[in-house]
Amino acid sequence: MALVTTILAAAEEGQHGNVALETLVFFGIALVIFAALALVVFSYRDVANRHAGKGRAFAQSHGADVEHRTGSGH
């Protein structure tokens, strides 16, 4: 029973700061991580269209049927 009262007394003496302000740090960290990941995803934008000519040339040289494929993905 003495352990429980010691833990309760320590909890009462603890710092009671503004929890909302303390969580803003985690929000900032998450925001930075998601922004970095968005930058990585954005850097791969339109990569397939930039290399469509190389892809068609490779497919033709290896005997693939390229008549049904288009560079726009439709």
What can be said about this structure in brief?
This protein is an all-alpha fold and 74 residues long.
Structure commentary:
With 74 residues, this protein is mostly helical. It has one domain. The protein is 69% helix and 0% strand. The protein has four helices and no strands. The longest helix is centred in the middle third of the chain and has 25 residues. The chain is rod-shaped and about 80 Å long.
Number of domains: 1
- Average pLDDT, to the nearest integer? 79
Radius of gyration: 29 Å
- N- to C-terminal separation? 72 Å
Helix content: 55-70%
Structural class: mainly alpha
Described by the principal axes of the CA atoms, the overall outline is rod-shaped
How is the secondary structure organized here?
Layout: H1 2-13, H2 19-43, H3 47-50, H4 52-61
Comma- or semicolon-separated keywords:
rod-shaped; mainly alpha; 74 residues; 69% helix
